[in-house]
Amino acid sequence: MTDPPQTRPRTRAPAGARGDRYKWTALTNTTAAVFMSALDGSIVLIALPAIFRGVHLDPLAPGNIAYLLWMIMGYRLVQAVLVVTVGRLGDMYGRVRMYNSGFAVFTFASILLSFDPFDGGHGAMWLIGWRLVQAVGGSILTANSAAILTDAFPEEQRGFALGINQVAGLAGMFIGLVAGGLLSAWDWRAVFWVNVPVGVLFTVWAYRTLRETSRREGGRIDWWGNLTFAVGLSAVLIAVTFGLQPYGGHTMGWTNPLVDGLIAGGLVLLAAFVVIENRVSAPMIQLSLFRQRAFTFGNLAGLAISIGRGGMQFVLIIWLQGIWLPLHGYDYADTPLWAGIFMLPLTAGFLAAGPVSGHLSDRLGSRGLATGGALLFGSSFLGLMVLPIDFSYWIFAVLIALNGIASGMFASPNSSSIMGSVPARSRGVASGMRATFQNSGTAVSIGVFFSLMIAGLAGSLPHTLTTGLQQQGVSAGIASQVGGLPPVSSLFAAQLGVNPIQHLLQPSGALTHLTAAQQQALTGREFFPNLISGPFHSGLVVVFAFGATLALLAAIASVLRGANPAAKTGGPPTGTPTETLGTEVPVEPNRPYGQER
C-alpha cells in the first residue's frame, strides 16, 4: 500500500511584501482620485466661454453674472462644507467604503454634466446642479484619501506619500487650466467626458483592491453639529458670491443687507457649532485636536497659503488674458488657452518641489521646510508686485516658477505634519478638517482678491475709460454710461476671452456710428490693455501686498507649530495593515506619529 501523495502546503507572501504592494496600490488610486477632483475644480475656468456658448447664454448679460460665479465657486463651496462630515463618516463606517462611493458619485455626475438637455438659464442651472453633485463625490475622495494613505504608509514614508497626493491635487488645479482650453476647443462637453473613462476604471479598481486597514469607530451622526456647520459655512461662502455682484449704485454688494445678514447669520451658526461640539458625546469634529500645536498652526498656515494661492491664480489669468497677451498680438478668443500655457512654469515648479519636499520632510522634519516655503511664497509676491504691466516673460516665468516651488515646499511637509499629529482613529476627520481649511481658503480667496482688485480699479477706471472712449469719438453720454459700469464686468470679460470694449459698446450700438478706423482702434488688441494698465497696476500692488502678508502670517504659524506631541493611536501602527487572513496586528499604544525632528 502506497502512501498518499503529499500535499504541498500553501504559502503566503510575507506580510511586509503584501503591505508594501498595498501601499503603492493605495497611493496610485488615491492620487488619481485627488487629481481628478482638483482638475474639475479649475478646468471650467478656461472652458467657461465654450460652455456658455454651448448652452447659448451670455454670462455677462445683466443678471447672468450669478451663473458665472456659481460655475466657478459652487464646486469649492460644496467641498469646503462637506469634507469634514464625510471624513467623520469614513472614521465611523470605513474610509475605503466612503472613498469608493465617492468615486462612483463623481463619475456618475460627470456623465450627466456632458448631457445637458437645456439652453439658456436652464442649461446653466443643469450644469451648476450637477457640478454640485460632482463636488459631493470629490469631497468624499479628498477627505478620505489622505487618511487611507496615512494608514497604509509607515511613518518614515508618510511625508513622501502625502506629498505625492498633495502634488497631484494642486497639479490638477493648474493642469486644468490648460486641459480646459484644449478640450473646449474641440467640444465643451469634452471637459466633462475626460473624467468618465478614468472614473469608471479607477472606481472598479478601488472596489477590487482597496481594503480597510484601520478599525471603524462606529458611533452616531452629530446631526445638530453637521447642520449648524454646513448651513453656517455655506451662508458665509454664499455671501462672498453675492458680495462680488454690484448692488444698487455700488460696484460690489458688500453693502447689500442680504450679504450682511448671511455673514452675520453664518458666523452665529458657526459659533453655535463650537458650543454644540463641546457638549455632545459624539461630535462631528474633535475640537480636542486643536490642542495639538502642529494640527492647529499647520491648518492656520495652510489656510493663509490657500487664500494667497487661489486668489493669485485668478489675478494672473486676468493679467495675461486681459492685458499682456493682447498687447503681444494674441486674439482675445485665443487668450484663455495661451494663459494656461504661459502659466506652466507655476505648475512645473510645484511638480518639481512637491515630491522632493515630502521626501525631505520624512528625514528632516516638516517645520523648517514648510516655513521656508511660506517665506519664498511671499517673496514671489513681492517680485510680482514690482513687475511692470507689460513685463518681460522670462522674468515673469521665473517668479511664478519660484511661487510653484514655494507651494510645493510648503504643501507636502505641512500635510505630513498635520496628519502625523493626530491619533490613527481620527485621521478621517482630521483629513476632512485639513481639506476644509484649504477649500474654504480657495473659495474665500476669490472674493477677497476680486474685491481688492475691483476696489483698486473703481477709483480710476471709470474716469480713464470714459475719457479714452470720448477721444475715439464715442458720445459723452454713452462713454459715461460705459465708464460707470461695474469693473467686475471688465474683469470677467477679460477672463472669458472677450474684448471688453466691444462687449460693453455693443448693446448701445455706438460702434455703428464711428468710422472704420475708430472701430478698429476701439476693438483692436491694444486699446483696452493700454487703457486699463494704470488702474490695473494699482490694484495689483494692493493684491500682491496682501498675498505677501498672508505668506508672512503662514510662516509665523508654521514656526509656532513646534514639535509634534506623541499622538495616541486608536488602531494598528501606521503602515502595518490589519491582516485579513489572520489575527490583527498587535497595537502599540501611545506610539508617536510624525514626531518633528
Report on the structure:
- The chain is mainly alpha-helical and 597 residues long.
- It has helices at residues 15-54, 65-93, 95-113, 120-152, 155-186, 190-193, 195-209, 223-243, 257-277, 293-327, 335-342, 344-364, 367-385, 393-420, 427-458, 461-471, 476-483, 487-495, 500-505, 516-523, 527-560.
- The longest helix is centred in the first third of the chain and has 40 residues, at 15-54.
Tell me the layout of helices and strands.
Elements: H1 15-54, H2 65-93, H3 95-113, H4 120-152, H5 155-186, H6 190-193, H7 195-209, H8 223-243, H9 257-277, H10 293-327, H11 335-342, H12 344-364, H13 367-385, H14 393-420, H15 427-458, H16 461-471, H17 476-483, H18 487-495, H19 500-505, H20 516-523, H21 527-560
Q: What's the rounded overall pLDDT mean?
A: 80
How many beta-strand runs? 0
Oligomer: single chain
Query: Rg from C-alpha positions?
Result: 26 Å
Count the DSSP helices.
21
Kindly name the structural category: mainly alpha
User: Biggest sheet, in brief?
Assistant: none
Estimate the global geometry from the Cα principal axes: globular
Q: Which parts are unreliable, with pLDDT below 50 for 5 consecutive residues or more? A: 1-17, 564-597
Element order, helices and strands? HHHHHHHHHHHHHHHHHHHHH
N/C terminus separation: 69 Å
